[in-house]
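Summarise this fold before class:
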Amino acid sequence: MIVKRLFLLIAIPAAFAAQPLMAETYSLAKANSARISDISFNLHDTSAQGPITLRQMQNTQLVQVKERSFKIQEGTGSTTHLKHLIAWAEAGHKGYDAIQLGAKKLPHKQPTQMTIGEIYAWINQTPNQPHAIGRYQFIPSTLQSLVIQAGLSESHKFTTGVQDALADILLEDAGFSSFMQGKISRHRFMTNLAKIWAGFPTATGRSYYHGYAGNRAVISWDRFDAIMKKIFPTKRG
Protein backbone atom coordinates (compact mmCIF):
# COMPACT_ATOMS: atom_id res chain seq x y z
CA MET A 1 0.00 0.00 0.00
CA ILE A 2 2.81 2.40 0.79
CA VAL A 3 4.41 1.97 -2.62
CA LYS A 4 1.08 2.40 -4.36
CA ARG A 5 0.42 5.63 -2.52
CA LEU A 6 3.89 6.85 -3.47
CA PHE A 7 3.23 6.20 -7.14
CA LEU A 8 -0.06 8.08 -6.96
CA LEU A 9 1.88 11.09 -5.77
CA ILE A 10 4.77 10.99 -8.16
CA ALA A 11 3.34 9.57 -11.35
CA ILE A 12 1.88 12.90 -12.40
CA PRO A 13 2.52 13.25 -16.13
CA ALA A 14 4.68 10.88 -18.10
CA ALA A 15 7.47 13.44 -17.83
CA PHE A 16 8.73 11.47 -14.86
CA ALA A 17 11.71 9.90 -16.62
CA ALA A 18 14.30 8.88 -14.08
CA GLN A 19 17.02 11.49 -14.18
CA PRO A 20 20.03 11.99 -11.91
CA LEU A 21 19.27 14.96 -9.70
CA MET A 22 21.69 17.28 -8.02
CA ALA A 23 22.03 16.60 -4.34
CA GLU A 24 20.83 18.93 -1.61
CA THR A 25 24.18 20.48 -0.85
CA TYR A 26 22.68 22.97 1.59
CA SER A 27 20.94 21.94 4.76
CA LEU A 28 20.10 23.28 8.20
CA ALA A 29 22.66 20.98 9.70
CA LYS A 30 24.45 23.94 11.29
CA ALA A 31 21.56 24.47 13.70
CA ASN A 32 22.37 24.05 17.39
CA SER A 33 22.20 20.46 18.52
CA ALA A 34 22.20 18.56 21.79
CA ARG A 35 23.44 15.05 22.53
CA ILE A 36 20.75 12.62 23.61
CA SER A 37 21.01 9.23 25.27
CA ASP A 38 17.98 7.58 23.73
CA ILE A 39 15.26 7.97 21.15
CA SER A 40 11.73 6.79 21.88
CA PHE A 41 9.88 4.80 19.24
CA ASN A 42 6.27 3.78 18.96
CA LEU A 43 6.98 1.02 16.41
CA HIS A 44 8.24 -2.45 17.17
CA ASP A 45 10.95 -4.19 15.18
CA THR A 46 9.69 -7.74 14.62
CA SER A 47 12.00 -8.76 11.79
CA ALA A 48 15.01 -11.02 12.04
CA GLN A 49 18.12 -8.98 11.44
CA GLY A 50 21.06 -10.46 9.57
CA PRO A 51 24.68 -9.36 9.86
CA ILE A 52 25.29 -5.72 9.04
CA THR A 53 27.81 -4.98 6.32
CA LEU A 54 28.77 -1.32 6.01
CA ARG A 55 29.61 0.02 2.58
CA GLN A 56 33.07 1.56 2.32
CA MET A 57 32.83 5.23 1.42
CA GLN A 58 35.31 7.78 0.13
CA ASN A 59 36.51 8.71 3.61
CA THR A 60 36.84 5.65 5.82
CA GLN A 61 37.55 7.56 9.04
CA LEU A 62 34.65 7.11 11.45
CA VAL A 63 33.60 10.30 13.19
CA GLN A 64 31.40 11.30 16.10
CA VAL A 65 28.54 13.70 15.52
CA LYS A 66 26.29 15.64 17.85
CA GLU A 67 22.68 14.67 17.51
CA ARG A 68 19.28 16.24 17.97
CA SER A 69 16.25 14.46 19.38
CA PHE A 70 14.04 12.61 16.91
CA LYS A 71 10.85 10.70 17.69
CA ILE A 72 8.75 8.69 15.26
CA GLN A 73 5.21 10.02 15.12
CA GLU A 74 2.36 7.67 15.94
CA GLY A 75 -0.37 6.64 13.55
CA THR A 76 1.37 7.29 10.24
CA GLY A 77 2.84 5.05 7.54
CA SER A 78 6.47 4.32 6.84
CA THR A 79 6.71 6.80 3.95
CA THR A 80 5.42 9.56 6.21
CA HIS A 81 7.88 8.52 8.94
CA LEU A 82 10.75 8.70 6.46
CA LYS A 83 9.76 12.15 5.23
CA HIS A 84 9.43 13.28 8.84
CA LEU A 85 12.99 12.06 9.46
CA ILE A 86 14.24 13.96 6.40
CA ALA A 87 12.50 17.12 7.56
CA TRP A 88 13.95 16.73 11.05
CA ALA A 89 17.47 16.46 9.61
CA GLU A 90 17.07 19.27 7.09
CA ALA A 91 14.44 21.83 8.03
CA GLY A 92 14.18 21.87 11.80
CA HIS A 93 11.10 23.28 13.50
CA LYS A 94 10.15 25.59 10.62
CA GLY A 95 9.25 22.63 8.45
CA TYR A 96 7.58 23.56 5.18
CA ASP A 97 8.47 27.23 5.66
CA ALA A 98 12.18 26.64 6.32
CA ILE A 99 14.84 28.59 4.46
CA GLN A 100 18.54 27.75 4.69
CA LEU A 101 20.12 29.52 7.65
CA GLY A 102 22.85 31.05 5.52
CA ALA A 103 20.36 33.06 3.46
CA LYS A 104 20.58 36.70 4.57
CA LYS A 105 18.04 38.13 2.14
CA LEU A 106 14.78 36.37 2.82
CA PRO A 107 11.63 36.44 0.69
CA HIS A 108 8.80 38.70 1.80
CA LYS A 109 6.42 35.78 2.24
CA GLN A 110 6.57 32.39 3.87
CA PRO A 111 7.57 29.70 1.34
CA THR A 112 4.18 27.96 1.53
CA GLN A 113 2.51 31.25 0.56
CA MET A 114 4.76 31.78 -2.46
CA THR A 115 4.24 30.59 -6.00
CA ILE A 116 7.03 28.67 -7.66
CA GLY A 117 7.58 31.68 -9.90
CA GLU A 118 7.99 33.92 -6.86
CA ILE A 119 10.59 31.52 -5.46
CA TYR A 120 12.49 31.63 -8.75
CA ALA A 121 12.36 35.44 -8.68
CA TRP A 122 13.69 35.53 -5.11
CA ILE A 123 16.55 33.23 -6.14
CA ASN A 124 17.44 35.42 -9.12
CA GLN A 125 17.23 38.64 -7.09
CA THR A 126 19.46 37.39 -4.26
CA PRO A 127 22.64 35.93 -5.77
CA ASN A 128 25.65 34.83 -3.74
CA GLN A 129 23.69 33.20 -0.95
CA PRO A 130 22.23 29.72 -0.37
CA HIS A 131 18.60 29.24 -1.42
CA ALA A 132 17.62 25.82 -0.04
CA ILE A 133 13.92 26.07 0.71
CA GLY A 134 11.04 24.18 2.24
CA ARG A 135 10.66 21.09 4.37
CA TYR A 136 13.07 19.12 2.20
CA GLN A 137 15.53 21.96 1.55
CA PHE A 138 15.36 21.91 -2.25
CA ILE A 139 18.22 23.83 -3.87
CA PRO A 140 17.46 25.80 -7.06
CA SER A 141 18.69 23.29 -9.65
CA THR A 142 16.90 20.41 -7.95
CA LEU A 143 13.71 22.41 -7.51
CA GLN A 144 13.65 23.39 -11.18
CA SER A 145 14.20 19.79 -12.29
CA LEU A 146 11.48 18.46 -9.99
CA VAL A 147 8.99 21.12 -11.06
CA ILE A 148 9.50 20.13 -14.69
CA GLN A 149 9.14 16.44 -13.89
CA ALA A 150 5.97 17.07 -11.92
CA GLY A 151 4.44 19.10 -14.74
CA LEU A 152 3.93 22.13 -12.51
CA SER A 153 3.86 25.73 -13.66
CA GLU A 154 5.31 28.82 -12.03
CA SER A 155 1.80 29.81 -10.95
CA HIS A 156 1.52 26.80 -8.64
CA LYS A 157 1.94 27.59 -4.96
CA PHE A 158 4.71 25.91 -3.03
CA THR A 159 2.20 24.26 -0.73
CA THR A 160 2.79 21.47 1.75
CA GLY A 161 1.25 19.02 -0.71
CA VAL A 162 3.47 20.20 -3.56
CA GLN A 163 6.57 19.90 -1.37
CA ASP A 164 5.64 16.37 -0.30
CA ALA A 165 5.01 15.33 -3.91
CA LEU A 166 8.38 16.72 -5.02
CA ALA A 167 10.07 14.89 -2.14
CA ASP A 168 8.44 11.66 -3.30
CA ILE A 169 10.21 12.06 -6.63
CA LEU A 170 13.54 12.37 -4.82
CA LEU A 171 12.74 9.30 -2.72
CA GLU A 172 12.09 7.33 -5.87
CA ASP A 173 15.33 8.67 -7.33
CA ALA A 174 17.07 7.31 -4.21
CA GLY A 175 15.64 3.87 -4.93
CA PHE A 176 12.54 3.78 -2.72
CA SER A 177 10.65 1.27 -4.88
CA SER A 178 13.71 -0.95 -5.26
CA PHE A 179 14.21 -0.84 -1.50
CA MET A 180 10.58 -1.73 -0.78
CA GLN A 181 10.78 -4.61 -3.27
CA GLY A 182 13.94 -5.96 -1.62
CA LYS A 183 16.16 -5.22 -4.61
CA ILE A 184 18.54 -3.01 -2.62
CA SER A 185 19.49 -3.17 1.05
CA ARG A 186 18.61 -0.72 3.76
CA HIS A 187 22.22 0.46 3.92
CA ARG A 188 22.32 1.07 0.17
CA PHE A 189 19.10 3.08 0.42
CA MET A 190 20.47 5.05 3.38
CA THR A 191 23.61 5.88 1.41
CA ASN A 192 21.48 7.02 -1.51
CA LEU A 193 19.47 9.25 0.83
CA ALA A 194 22.72 10.72 2.18
CA LYS A 195 23.73 11.65 -1.36
CA ILE A 196 20.54 13.70 -1.67
CA TRP A 197 20.14 15.18 1.83
CA ALA A 198 23.32 16.47 3.46
CA GLY A 199 22.03 16.14 7.03
CA PHE A 200 22.24 12.35 6.78
CA PRO A 201 25.56 10.51 7.28
CA THR A 202 27.30 7.96 5.13
CA ALA A 203 28.77 4.83 6.73
CA THR A 204 31.81 6.91 7.78
CA GLY A 205 29.58 8.98 10.05
CA ARG A 206 30.11 12.07 7.93
CA SER A 207 27.80 13.81 5.53
CA TYR A 208 28.51 13.01 1.89
CA TYR A 209 28.98 16.80 1.60
CA HIS A 210 30.87 17.28 4.86
CA GLY A 211 32.48 20.71 5.04
CA TYR A 212 30.91 21.96 1.83
CA ALA A 213 28.91 25.14 2.53
CA GLY A 214 29.01 24.26 6.22
CA ASN A 215 27.28 20.91 5.82
CA ARG A 216 27.63 18.11 8.35
CA ALA A 217 25.63 15.09 9.43
CA VAL A 218 23.25 15.73 12.32
CA ILE A 219 22.93 12.07 13.30
CA SER A 220 25.34 9.14 13.57
CA TRP A 221 25.25 6.25 11.12
CA ASP A 222 24.30 3.80 13.89
CA ARG A 223 21.40 5.98 15.04
CA PHE A 224 20.32 6.57 11.45
CA ASP A 225 20.37 2.80 10.91
CA ALA A 226 18.40 2.15 14.11
CA ILE A 227 15.70 4.62 13.10
CA MET A 228 15.46 3.15 9.61
CA LYS A 229 15.05 -0.32 11.16
CA LYS A 230 12.14 1.01 13.19
CA ILE A 231 10.52 2.61 10.15
CA PHE A 232 11.12 -0.40 7.89
CA PRO A 233 11.32 -3.40 10.27
CA THR A 234 11.03 -6.09 7.59
CA LYS A 235 13.73 -4.76 5.27
CA ARG A 236 17.22 -6.25 5.22
CA GLY A 237 20.27 -4.27 6.24
Q: What stands out?
A: The first helix runs from residue 2 to 10. Residues 1-70 have pLDDT under 50 and may be disordered. The chain has eight helices and no strands. The helical segments are 2-10, 78-90, 116-125, 140-150, 160-173, 176-180, 186-194, 221-231.
